[in-house]
Amino acid sequence: MAFKIGLLGLGTVGAGTAEILLNPELRHPLVQEIEIGKVGVRSLDKPRPVALPADLLTTDLEAIVTDPEIDIVVEVIGGLEPARSLILKAIAHGKHVVTANKAVIARYSDEIFDAASAAGVYVMIEAAVAGGIPVIQPLKQSLSVNRIHRVMGIVNGTTNYILTRMAREGADFDGVLADAQRLGYAEADPTADVDGLDAADKIAILASLAFGGRIKLPEVYCEGIRSISAADIAYADRLGFVIKLLATALREPSAPDDATDHLQVRVHPTLLPKSHPLASVNDVYNAILFEGDPVGQVMLFGRGAGSGPTASAVVSDIQNIVAILKTSLKTSGETSPHSAAELHPLLACIHQHYCTISPMDEVVSRFYARFLTRDMPGVIGRLGTCFGDHEVSLESVVQIGFQDDLAEIVVVTHDVREGNFRKALAEIRGFEGVAEIPSVLRVL
Predict the structure, then answer these.
(1) Which of 177, 185, 294, 433 shows its CA 20 to 30 Å from the CA of 258?
(2) Which residues are the active-site residues?
(3) Cα separation of 37 and 34, whole Å?
């Protein structure tokens, strides 16, 4: 029997999804059993990148999620509303849901997954993180027997493209961003990408799956790439590093008497050693590195966005639901495909408790800092003394040269507690010989 989907949105991802479903040849046989029942669009007259019968199109998206003939609702309209409300209404009407909407899942996963669990339906989210790179199902299934220690990755193609161009061309941020917007790699409003918000949504989702608990998005530390300069990239290169916007989630070692898992979940630019597996991931590509016991390191790499890659993840989720429904129908003898007899524990999201996120002041990291200082005796000595007073151990202090009659000094620390480092910087900013601290970046 055919399983009918209601497709909400026929933009880039929606059109890619329809294209796969309309051309099932040489794909898995289950794709042939998936039928497009209805497609929700904003305008009926707009030219479409994919040819669909006119009677499949409607502007009434609510009618799709309540239609008794629809088995699976696919939400690819993006944004918070009406996406969230339509997903919840679909669940209330017994529909399974596939979504590519990381913003909705990162913010409203608690109510969405609670509702899905109560209704006995699936909400599948492979396309919400890293486009066509399969990361959600591997975390739920193949890697779930491991104790995951760390998830770390480059999960935003726009920022990776900008940083790659800056490194190759010695260009500054503003010029490369403007060019990326002209080429369509960056949105007219690039805030979600360049300020790290998109990456924060994605690492919140990955952390929830990796560590088996819910993540409160406001607790995810988020810092973008606007402050990265060509000078920082050049100095990083001289020191043996590249700069990437990294999204990281890791489990901290617990004290013997502490039964609570403490996580670090953060997004920020990071100096990566050139030998690191993620250092060679360039342009619009994404990569996610998992570290676990006993598997060790596993890295997944590919295109993190775009019509084809994201649609691949969407249809994969649809196919997984269809496979479960076919099995349920055969074992139960029912004729309705809407509900699964029991949710598959490796496909459903069933976490109930909230993870404890450590504040950034407690995070231990290495740091890179660039200082512009006046030509006065003893400045480097005062920097070293101040850092020592705050228990900040320095790996290297290098005077690079002069900029506008100011000496340029680059400091790299050993692992230090962030709170201590910030207190030292606050004191140093008051020094008479320090004109500016233009850059502070973390080092892996």
Answers:
(1) 294
(2) 202
(3) 9
Question: What is each CA distance from 112 to 84, 102, 216, 327, 351, in whole angstroms?
Answer: 8, 13, 14, 25, 12
Percent of the chain with pLDDT strictly greater than 90: 81
pLDDT band at 331 (very low <50, low <70, confident <90, very high): low
Burial classification of residue 1, based on how many CB atoms lie within 10 Å of its CB (0-12 exposed, 13-18 middle, 19 or more buried) = exposed
In this structure, which amino acid lies at residue 280?
A: S
| Residue 273, amino acid | P
Is the bond preceding residue 294 a cis peptide, omega within 30 degrees? yes
> What pLDDT score does 360 carry?
95
Cβ partners under 8 Å of residue 356, min gap 6: 260, 261, 262, 263
Preceding amide of 82 cis, omega within 30: yes
Radius of gyration of the chain (CA): 25
Q: Residue 23 is encoded by which pair of tokens?
A: 């051309």
Mind listing the pLDDT tens digit for each residue in 379-388? 889 999 999 9
The DSSP annotation for 4-33 comes to EEEEE--SHHHHHHHHHHH--TTS-GGGGG
Sign (positive or negative) of CA dihedral 231, 232, 238, 241: negative
